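Dear Dr. H.,

I hope your travels went smoothly. While you were away I took the liberty of generating a structure for the chain from your last submission, since the lab meeting agenda had it listed for discussion. I wanted you to have the full record in hand beforehand rather than looking at slides cold. The sequence, exactly as received, is reproduced here:
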Amino acid sequence: MRAALVYDEALTAYNLGASHPLKPERLRLTRALIQATCPPNGACRELPPRLATEDDLLPVHSADYLAEVRRLSVSPRSAPRPGYGFEVADNPPFAGMWEASLRYTGASLAAAELVLSGQAQVAFSIAGGLHHAMRSRASGFCIFNDCAVAIYRLLREVDRVAYVDVDAHHGDGVQAAFYSDPRVLTISIHESGRYLFPGTGFPEEVGEGAGVGFSVNVPLPPATGDDAYQLVFDGVIVPLLKAFRPDVIVTQLGADSHLSDPLAHLCVTTHTYEHVLASFASFGLPWVALGGGGYNLQAVPRVWALAWAAMCGCDVPDAMPRSQLAHYGTEAIRDPVRTASEAKVTEAVAAVIDRVKELVFPTHGL
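The corresponding predicted structure, in token form, is as follows:
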């Protein structure tokens, strides 16, 4: 099997509230657009997730945190115990939270296991990518850190994993999980923490102990367009991946770097996502792809449907399928034009590139 889409309608069975940005419709709309553009069949198949177990979670999350998630799942109106992140509006407890979180984490585990077994060259868990959850704290809409859980599962059978996060928000929870571990190269390209949650992810965060040089952060200024973003990717991320020589690549494909996203301020288009995806595919390595952020319901499905097409080798035409026109209000899947960065943005990005190279390239012989 070339590619597996890990999906089940049960993954949409969560409710964070009518005004919460992390809406289950993101998943339903993505699957509908995938079915209309590059439907799973033959060498590219849709497969169901499994439920994560507590044993799967314990390398990443503390037992007391898991107990609090379970308690609030049964009694979501009870007062959250302080320090676990549920007193914050971003992470409202809801009935069935435990089961829903086990399910999306299990979907990412299923993707990792499909790749490990050789059943699929790439597996895509669109419900995954919840990269902010910490060891004992929910954060940024994330209850369990499925990214880190999946990486720990991979490390039971491989030696080196590269994690690349293109979400507009810093992948802080994954970085924290592997900050001293040289087996995992974590790379996050995101809007600078000077302007955006979680306020971290600066170039100087390079790891600690044996992990120094294996945590890579590329913070970008607001209004970074396609040209500057691709310069970063080709000039920093590609050389690092080649030097690190991972056994498996894990990618978090947050769609909130898209210029239309309401919660971030980057200005990249579908063209950059396709550029990045083609680069990942070109390595020819086992690849676990996860979803992530993205809060414009007209943009997220287009980005992730194009991602699935890149994984399957589908030639998706620009024209929006007729069955999808009513929702998207556009006749094209791809954005019409590429975005260019202003001179001051390009200069700021160049300075970030230089700083990242100075701090981490020597570790990798670059």
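Two observations you may find useful: The beta strands are 3-6, 44-47, 122-125, 161-165, 184-191, 215-220, 248-252, 287-290. The two ends are 35 Å apart (CA to CA).

With kind regards,
E. W.
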